[in-house]
Amino acid sequence: MLIGSKFKEQRIKLKLSQAELSAGICTQAVISKIENQNISPSVDILSQLVVKLNLTLNDVFSEFTNLPSNNLVNDKILEIDQLIQNQQFENIPSLIDSINPKNLSNATQAHIHYQLGRIAANQSDFDESIFQYNYVLQLLDNRKKSFWKFVALIGLGKIYQAKAASDKVDYYFGLASQNFESQHFQSDSTYWYSLESLTLLATFYTQSNDWQTARKWIDLGLVPRNGALSAQFTDRLYYLSALNTLNDNLTDRSTLSHDLTMAIAFADYNHNQALLDEINQLMQQNNIRELKIKP
To answer: How many angstroms from the chain centroid is the CA of residue 97?
Structure first.
């Protein structure tokens, strides 16, 4: 039996309204029926909702023996996400081939096609990657803001960066900026992609000398989640923050020192020697000899 009270408890804990939880997945009425009447929707819809709530199907069912989690399409999709994020692309094809997209929601299909775009980009098959990302946009065309639309636009911008097509990079990163929503950070399944995308946006606008816009994305990326910062990407974000501070007419040396110290600490933890070299060069160019972290 579905436990609607558990569902509602977690939604309130995450400070989500029923409308916010249902956005892009189902109607608000479905959420109401789950919470108040213990009525279960389709497995596809329920799987998306529990991911958005950082729950599992085990958490919301009192009896789960007839619905093994490892047989769910959603579990396979999340496993592919982990493989992408760990750069283990060689293990993905068999999982992708085992998923039948028929009868899946547009949002779930968009998620899968985004993954296919990432796989193609990793193989430098940019034409295929562009096709998959545009397929995501087509699937979600009627939705003003959607997470998979946001990251697909980032993916397109990144491809055109590699192609040195600056006008297209401006266009797609600009559209991505309009489609970002802070609630993307609330889900374990989208957090890594969100942080990666914010870092790409922050880097792009820093390189464009648009310091104000860059600062917006840097600050969003450096917001702690569950009381902690992610090790990955944080080194680059602190470095970008230092660059931003250096180009402020009212440079705060204590803030600059703190940002560089944090960038070095995270880069060292991540064994990111390339970034450590960049930081060293920046310090030499600006005659920065001593660093202190803020208390």
So the answer is: 24
